[in-house]
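Hi Y.,

Following your request, here is the sequence exactly as I used it, all 124 residues.
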Amino acid sequence: QVQLVESGGGLVQAGGSLRLSCAASGHTFSSYVMGWFRQAPGKERQFVATISWNGVGTYYADSVKGRFTISRDNAKNTVYLQMNSLRPEDTAVYYCAADASGIVTTKGSNYDYWGQGTQVTVSS
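Below is the corresponding structure, written out as tokens. Let me know if you'd prefer a different format.
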């Protein structure tokens, strides 16, 4: 069982930056693929970014490519999402997720564990 706790959300003006963190419990963190997803009010959950177990492989949604960076520190059992040049349309609850299969995927249904989410609000 893996528990995920996100932090770092908040209110920021358009063009600003935020860094989200997701701390994981358990000694198998380094074997998991980690992902970030988001859900805006009235909309479906959306893939944002994912990272392989060793941090070498990353993949981003087109809407965030070039602005967001996912990274991980396996020694700290933590995955990060650096968000730059934020836009009002980035406003959502952001969730981190862990996939035990080890296969990098953008499909939320493939992820086994989810955090409780952190709110990101970007004002115009």
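The mean pLDDT is 96.

Thanks again,
Q.
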